[in-house]
């Protein structure tokens, strides 16, 4: 028998803790939040138990909760009441996302990083991430004009990190230029570089009352292609992104590991709505240990190379981590 016995280092909780390569910390978790326009209470999102479309009041309370829990940031999404072809609510200073951003910057802007989704899909009546050409296709370069304006509106509202999730070619370059020439050279860009055309965004579509009829396969990456994720990340870094992200997370750990190995800027991952819904649904049926599955899923995403993780469990996990210490 050879003398090697890997079990030695697994024998006690103290040993396992000492040799753990990956650890979770609240500062590396970012909480995505939905804020709806109009009066009334927060509304539950059926396919995401525990997640809501916030009212302005519940939003303020949740922001304070996130800051108290020590999470690293919040990523804001707006749910508007009116939509149009150009997504004009996205650039209106009184549009819901910009209003929510001002609230967040004021309430918790010193305690965590206030981040905003920079994409038109919540604001367009057709639900696409950009504006449409006469033939109905998503017009890449016309969309960049809208993203530039959206970037300025978000920066003026106090966003501290712009999350470019639209997957238009050259979006990072365009937004970087708009910010730099508009007096916001200090505002960084989080590029959703490796963003796949995924079924796991299903519950998100309910969360933002998406109007989308078709799919996003002409701009988001085909799940069959790993190399394109790494290529998009390299392009976004070259265009001036400050952070790149892979999304979804759990089904794309190979892409994440590849991007982490090749990028020279921070790499994040987004554990998306469908990943959340699957674990919640299995746990609700008693088929899976909820807390263990949540922690294992986020640990695996970190282990694969994500330095920070966007997750709807951010605040709850931060609470567990505090308990453990
Ligand atoms: C685009 C955007 C989406 C998500 C984050 N930003 C939807 C999409 O691309 O279809 C999905 C996040 C999730 O599913 O949790 N605004």
TrEMBL record:
EC numbers, comma separated: 4.2.1.24
Keywords assigned: Heme biosynthesis, Lyase, Porphyrin biosynthesis
Which reaction(s) are listed as its catalytic activity?
2 5-aminolevulinate = porphobilinogen + 2 H2O + H(+)
Q: Pfam families, per this entry?
A: ALAD (PF00490)
Its pathway is: Porphyrin-containing compound metabolism; protoporphyrin-IX biosynthesis; coproporphyrinogen-III from 5-aminolevulinate: step 1/4
> Which PROSITE patterns does the UniProt record give?
D_ALA_DEHYDRATASE
Q: Which domain of life is it from?
A: Bacteria
Query: Subunit composition?
Result: Homooctamer.
> What this chain does, per the record?
Catalyzes an early step in the biosynthesis of tetrapyrroles. Binds two molecules of 5-aminolevulinate per subunit, each at a distinct site, and catalyzes their condensation to form porphobilinogen.
- Indicate the family of this protein: Belongs to the ALAD family.
Q: What is this protein called?
A: Delta-aminolevulinic acid dehydratase
* Native source species: Naasia aerilata
């Amino acid at each position: 028998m050879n003398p090697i016995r890997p079990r030695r280092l697994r024998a006690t909780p103290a040993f396992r803790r000492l040799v753990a390569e990956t650890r979770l910390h609240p500062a590396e978790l970012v909480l995505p939040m939905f804020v709806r326009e109009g009066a009334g209470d927060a509304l539950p999102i059926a396919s995401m138990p525990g997640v809501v479309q916030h009212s302005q009041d519940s939003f303020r309370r949740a922001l304070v909760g996130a800051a108290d829990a020590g999470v690293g940031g919040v990523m804001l999404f707006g749910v508007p009441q009116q939509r149009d072809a150009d997504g004009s609510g996205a650039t209106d200073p009184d549009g819901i996302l910009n209003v929510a951003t001002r609230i967040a910057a004021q309430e918790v802007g010193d305690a965590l990083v206030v981040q905003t989704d920079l994409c038109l899909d919540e604001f367009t009546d057709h639900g696409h991430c950009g504006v449409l050409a006469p033939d109905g296709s998503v017009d890449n370069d016309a969309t960049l004009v809208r993203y530039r304006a959206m970037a300025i509106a978000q920066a003026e509202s106090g966003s501290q990190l712009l999350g470019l999730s639209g997957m238009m070619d050259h979006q990072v370059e365009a937004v970087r230029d708009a910010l730099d020439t508009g007096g916001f050279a200090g505002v960084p860009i989080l590029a959703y570089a490796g963003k796949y055309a995924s079924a796991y965004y299903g519950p998100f579509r309910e969360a933002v009352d998406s109007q989308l009829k078709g799919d996003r396969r002409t701009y988001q990456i085909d799940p069959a292609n790993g190399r394109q994720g790494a290529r998009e990340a390299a392009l976004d870094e070259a265009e001036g992104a400050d952070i790149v992200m892979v999304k979804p997370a759990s089904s794309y750990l190979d892409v994440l590991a590849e991007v982490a190995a090749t990028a020279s800027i921070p790499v994040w991952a987004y554990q998306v709505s469908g990943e959340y819904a699957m674990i919640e649904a299995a746990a609700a049926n008693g088929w899976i240990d909820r807390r263990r599955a949540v922690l294992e899923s986020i640990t695996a995403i970190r282990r694969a190379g994500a330095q920070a993780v966007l997750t709807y469990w951010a605040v709850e996990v931060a609470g567990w981590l505090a308990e453990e210490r």
